[in-house]
Design goal:
Blueprint: H1 14-19, E1 22-23, E2 30-31, H2 36-45, H3 55-77, H4 83-95, E3 99-102, E4 108-111, H5 117-134, E5 140-143, E6 152-155, H6 167-185
Antiparallel strand pairs: 1-2, 3-4, 5-6
Helix pairs in contact: 3-4, 3-5, 4-5
The chain binds zinc ion.
């Protein structure tokens, strides 16, 4: 009965896709990982296969998510990074024991430990956030232009002029609003 839950918004950048599991933060927020099972489903989409997740682990995942959101938002607008958020990200990154492994098809897989797969998966996400926020990866953090969203996203376009976290949602809504505005003016 997955249809009961809000669909995932899947981006190509792990860390900012993770922060996108809570959307419309400045409007009517939509929680896209409302249950531990939905976190398991979300992780599976990104190749982080865990068999189960406890409510406490979901809480820690959300704490990491909000820390990444706070740090990425600060980085996007050029503010100093909030120290508590940085601490949470670093703790998760240090705790994770995931190993990147190469398949004979030349693909990367994440190998998580038997005893703490959820912590390992969160460690991978935290490390990805560190890459993106520190500027180690080619791209630029920016905030979505939608006033009800303001999600931090990672702009990898050549011109670095992307305005929305997602064209299909925020971008289209903005375009429709502009169209309605013009129609009303006529
Ligand atoms: Zn947006």
């Amino acid at each position: 009965m997955a249809a009961r839950f809000p669909e995932f918004r899947l981006g190509s950048v792990l860390a900012t896709s993770f922060t996108g599991t809570l959307s419309e933060r400045h409007g009517e927020p939509v929680e896209r990982i409302p249950t531990p099972e939905r976190l398991v489903d979300w992780l599976a989409v990104y190749g982080l296969d865990v068999r189960s997740c406890t409510p406490a682990q979901l809480e820690r995942a959300r704490e990491l998510r909000e820390a990444i959101h706070a740090a990425a938002t600060a980085a996007a607008v050029g503010d100093p990074l909030p120290a508590p958020a940085v601490q949470i990200i670093n703790d998760h990154s240090a705790r994770g024991r995931a190993a990147a492994v190469l398949t004979t098809e030349g693909e990367r897989r994440w190998q998580l430990s038997v005893n703490s797969p959820v912590e390992d998966a969160l460690g991978v996400i935290a490390a990805d956030a560190i890459d993106v926020i520190s500027g180690e990866r080619d791209g630029k953090l920016a905030l979505c232009a939608s006033p009800t969203c303001r999600a931090a996203f990672f702009d990898t376009s050549r011109s670095r002029t992307r305005r929305w976290c997602e064209m299909n949602t925020c971008g289209n809504r903005e375009k429709k609003a502009r169209f309605r505005g013009r129609a009303a003016a006529r």
